[in-house]
Amino acid sequence: MTKADLINIIAEKANLQHKQSEIVVNMVFDMMTDSLKKDDRIEIRGFGSFVNRCYEGYRGRNPKTGQLVEVPPKRVPFFKVGKELKERVDHD
User: Fold this and answer.
1) Are 52 and 78 in contact (CB under 8 A)?
2) What is the pTM of this model?
3) Residue 7: Cβ within 10 Å count
4) Residue 38 in contact with residue 75, Cβ under 8 Å?
5) What is the mean pLDDT of residues 77-92?
6) Tens of pLDDT, residues 7-56
7) In b/e form, how buried is each residue of 21-31, taking b as 16+ CB within 10 angstroms?
8) Helix (H), strand (E), coil (C) string for 11-77
9) The predicted structure's pLDDT at residue 92
10) What secondary structure letter does DSSP report for 10?
11) Which of 56, 52, 55, 40 is nearest to 80 (CA)?
């Protein structure tokens, strides 16, 4: 499912105009992004949770040239599926 598919399904099921549905979906994604930027945890009961995983910086190697490069520390969003979603996907 793509973002466009999600917008269309929400518009149909909630009896909204396409533009209204698009605004709702974009707002939800923007709010989730803002929370992760602030290093907040997002938990949606029965669905799953989003957290940032922090990785230390390290010295890596450019595979093309073999030159050493410094890789800066980074935060990467991580999704952990909830028990209910896992069971529903596995059993339906």
Assistant:
1) yes
2) 0.80
3) 20
4) no
5) 92
6) 999 999 999 999 999 999 999 999 999 999 999 999 999 999 999 999 99
7) bbebbeeeeee
8) HHHCCCCHHHHHHHHHHHHHHHHHHHHCCCCEEECCCEEEEEEEECCEEEECCCCCCEEEECCEEEE
9) 61
10) H
11) 52
Structure tokens at 22: 């698009």
Element (H, E) at 90: helix 83-91
For 4: left if phi > 0, alpha if psi spans -120 to 50, otherwise beta; the answer is alpha
Helices 3-13 and 18-37 pack at an angle, to 10 degrees, of 120
- Amino acid found at 58: Y
Four-point Cα dihedral 43, 35, 30, 71, nearest 10: -110
Of 67, 68, 48, nearest to 58 by C-alpha is 68
